Amino acid sequence: MRNVQQRFKMHVPVAIIGAGPSGSLLAWMLRRKGIESIVIEARSREYVEGRIRAGVLEQGTVDTLIAAGVGDRLKKESLHHRGVCIGFKNEHYILDFDKLIGRGVTVYGQQEITKDLLSALDRENHNVLYEAPATMVEDLESETPTLRYTYEGKECELTADFIIGCDGFRGVSRQSIPASVLKTHDLVYPFGWLGILANVKPSKEVALFSHNDRGFALLSMRSESVGRLYLQCRNDENLDEWRDDRIWDELDARLGAPGWTLERGEITQKDVTPLRSFFSEPMQHGRLFLAGDAAHIVPPTGAKGLNSAVADINVLAAALINRIQNDDETLLRDYSDIALSRNWQVQRFSWSNTAMYHIFPESNSFTRRMQDAQLEYLVSDETAQILYAQNHTGLPFAHKPEF
Ligand SMILES: Cc1cc2nc3c(=O)[nH]c(=O)nc-3n(C[C@H](O)[C@H](O)[C@H](O)COP(=O)(O)OP(=O)(O)OC[C@H]3O[C@@H](n4cnc5c(N)ncnc54)[C@H](O)[C@@H]3O)c2cc1C
Prior knowledge:
403 residues, alpha/beta, 8-stranded mixed β-sheet, binds flavin-adenine dinucleotide, 20 strands, 9-stranded mixed β-sheet, 35% helix, FAD/NAD(P)-binding domain
């Protein structure tokens, strides 16, 4: 017979799966409104806080974190980028978003946001269970769905009024929606990104996106002394074949322009990330709601994943607060449609940027010439630059909870 432990409470108003940015932000926003939740996280706290991923924040994300009271360190330590630089035919072109539309982007590591949120939850003694993988969610169409998870080697379960799947692309929540309900849309790209983290002063004041015959390359930074740089690579690239010198030489070849020097430094981390566009619809089934990477992922070319997660959580937090405190279900009922409609636009921008910058294995002289035409238009036409700036710095968030 199964040994089921009912830890903490038998029943919580909101059970959140995943303590990444989506889950920890939602728990924090609800907490600030006095709404109880529990967060169930599969990995250790050290792992969650150490995961180096996103670093480019839209203004909506920055405003959200500051309004929610977790923006103090961000305000002190982040960098403002007035725009981006486009590398094309061995020239560098600055797109100055501050001048074009009056706003740029903010650079602050995702791991720092996660630390800020988890520390804030800690200070309030919030229930966050680490190393507690959720194994199943069920009875989603009932008023008290069940979440099963393991903790300290035991099978546990709880019921909740609402279960929120913030468990990333490979989590259990999306998979528990019946196949007859869930539609998925997927595009796997025939390349990935070889990323490095390096102790090096950035060689540009803003991120440099470079389209080159040898493949795409990106120079970005996490701080004044830490660079994050990427090379388009094969999905099955063997990192053992990439000595540090070879990586810097290749970055130089793809990013270079006359009169400009790429600073080199100690490489502290190397990884390969496959690129994928994916979204599922709807983002809700019964009492289960999906947010962030659990519902959609984008190739990192547009720097949108984390920002989309924050956009989802804004709507979902406002909707749950309305439902739980004011008994008003309108926004919660519309959550999936509202979140999806912004997400399609984010998917479009990330997909079209990926197509414009990368070299595809199946490309021919026509598709290559079209990429050149797109980039020539972008670096020379102000209207094209305004549209790019609006998308890169972020589309408006549909709803925000008031704090
Ligand atoms: C290399 C790279 C660079 C990126 N750069 C950018 C960028 O510049 N800008 C940007 O906006 N986005 C970027 N992204 C995307 C961004 O990191 C993600 O979109 C973001 O992490 C999504 O947050 P999330 O909380 O929804 O999911 P996640 O961060 O994936 O968190 C999900 C959490 O759920 C936990 N979990 C999973 N399964 C279970 C389970 N069964 N039970 C309990 N817990 C579970 C996981 O351990 C994890 O902690 C990048 C991603 C990568 C990989």
